[in-house]
Amino acid sequence: MGNSWMQRLTKFYQKYAYLMRGRYGRVDQINKALLIVWAVMLIVDRWIPFYIGNVIALAALALVLYRFCSKKIYPRSNENQKFIQWIARVKDFFTGKATYRYFKCPECKQKMRAPKGRGKIKVTCKNCHTQFVKKV
User: How many helices and strands in the chain, by DSSP H and E?
Assistant: First the structure.
């Protein structure tokens, strides 16, 4: 009797593996955030009029399922990377961490960066060793 359950579970797993072959199938940061939105909306929907909470919860769950079953792996991964960068910028804004100002060397056009809020600083280019003053 125990053996038949194991066979059923193995057969179910094989069918699931065949179905998910070539699909994104990851619970990444966007999917985690959408699942949190889904759960919060299910709790809060009683106090939101006109079923707006239910609609938002259903949309979040549908988006999670779409992303999970998508066969476009690289676009889903790129979306996740952009989301991670956006979250980092939001966290930096609220924690007050330094953001950077980007500029180019006037001689060799090498891209450089310096933390914002330092005022006028003397910069030496690592590529051509040109020194210049820049306000950041």
Answer: 4, 4
